[in-house]
């Protein structure tokens, strides 16, 4: 294995190459999202919590922002449910990632809230791109509202997403580590100049499960980012487990008590394993949505 310094230089070179290829997004040109649906009749700055789907609209720093909330049939006021925020790639929509991930169906079976925020102009201001909005602040605001208004359990708040949404998951883990218990980036990574300082890590434990494809042109960047994450958080990785289709699963325990689980799929591109829409790797031997939820429900927020 190359020395630590050489690995970081290699990661920086690979990032520069990836950015040159990508334009402004790790998913640029690949997130063929559907057009946003019109807000439901219940859309309003103050939605009325209840089972089913609602679109909530708010004025965030002078910009109209929306997010869709899916509550399971079992939803009832006063019952604390886990919250999973699912973020779309760039350029795309919450409608697209809802269909791709099928997290609403999972929420119905497992009794949690699934939320799909809309980025501005199809993207979120994540680690590498895409925009200049204060999306960390926006997501802090909506998670607080979901705790206060919908009764989301503050000890079980999670984030996932693909591509730009996966990058954003890492950003939330670092900048809102007091809020999120675990994240699940899919075909996304811990990269970009913002991550250069060794101090750019969670201040409280945030566990990670991630899925990256060997045929993804950004695989070297994503893989290098996982190495740096483990070095900074002093994670000890166990031997890899070999699965079908030459998929490997690695698990690492970190000094702060968090975990990092990584699935590397050698034949997958920039995709969601067993997804149900554009950007899906339908033939993958693992189901990302199922594994993400199993990981989330076993990782409530750790006390610091």
Automatic annotation (TrEMBL):
Gene3D superfamilies linked to this entry: alpha/beta hydrolase
Low complexity bias: start-end ranges: 41-52
Leader peptide range in chain numbering: 1-22
This protein's UniProt keywords: Carbohydrate metabolism, Hydrolase, Polysaccharide degradation, Secreted, Signal, Xylan degradation
Keyword set includes DNA repair: no
Subcellular location: Secreted
Record region (Disordered): 26-55
Top-level taxon: Bacteria
Main location: secreted
Classification via InterPro entries: AB_hydrolase_fold, FaeB/C/D
Protein's UniProt keywords contain Signal: yes
UniProt-recorded name of the protein: Polyhydroxybutyrate depolymerase
High-level lineage: Bacteria, Bacillati, Actinomycetota, Actinomycetes, Kitasatosporales
């Amino acid at each position: 294995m190359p020395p630590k310094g050489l690995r970081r230089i290699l990661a920086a070179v690979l990032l520069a190459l990836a950015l040159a290829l990508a334009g402004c997004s790790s998913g640029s040109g690949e997130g063929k999202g559907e057009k946003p649906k019109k807000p439901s009749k219940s859309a309003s700055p103050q939605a009325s919590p209840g089972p089913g789907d609602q679109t909530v609209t708010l004025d965030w720093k002078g910009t109209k922002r929306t997010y869709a909330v899916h509550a399971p049939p079992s939803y009832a006021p006063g019952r604390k449910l886990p919250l999973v925020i699912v973020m779309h790639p760039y350029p795309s929509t919450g409608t697209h990632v809802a269909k791709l991930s099928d997290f609403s169906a999972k929420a119905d079976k497992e009794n949690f809230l699934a939320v799909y925020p809309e980025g501005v102009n199809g993207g979120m201001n994540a680690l590498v791109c895409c925009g200049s909005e204060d999306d960390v602040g926006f997501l802090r605001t909506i998670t607080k509202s979901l705790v206060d208004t919908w009764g989301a359990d503050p000890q079980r708040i999670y984030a996932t997403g693909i591509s730009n949404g996966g990058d954003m998951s890492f950003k939330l883990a670092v900048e809102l580590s007091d809020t999120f218990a675990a994240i699940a980036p899919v075909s996304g990574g811990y990269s970009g100049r913002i991550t250069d300082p060794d101090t750019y890590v969670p201040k409280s434990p945030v566990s990670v499960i991630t899925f990256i494809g060997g045929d993804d042109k950004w695989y070297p960047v994503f893989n290098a980012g996982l190495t740096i994450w483990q070095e900074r958080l002093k994670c000890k990785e166990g031997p890899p487990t070999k699965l079908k289709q030459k998929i490997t699963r690695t698990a690492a325990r970190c000094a702060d008590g968090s975990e990092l689980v990584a699935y590397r799929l050698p034949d997958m591109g920039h995709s969601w394993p067993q997804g149900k829409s554009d950007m899906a790797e339908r033939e993958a031997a693992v189901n990302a949505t199922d594994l993400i939820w199993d990981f989330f429900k076993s990782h409530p927020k750790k006390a610091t």
